[in-house]
What we know:
It contains three helices and five strands.
Amino acid sequence: MMSSKYFAYPTTYEGERAVLYYTGGLIYYHVGGSMAWRNNNPGNCYSGNSSARFNEIGQNGSFAIFPTYSDGYNCMEYVIFNNYG
Length: 85
């Protein structure tokens, strides 16, 4: 489980859709691009039990925001193989 020092939320940056990330002292944005990219969530996994297993640090609507692309990818893989065989 990620520390509470890690969080993210949807926002705008210079008029563009963005996600602000705070990762233990470092603040950065994912600006523009697809929602999946901004959220580090290539499978557009919903926020919930599955995403919590993979370090979800925020929500963008009903979708999870992950601290890294790898976390989002691992959640997608888990959902596919455990829900769809």
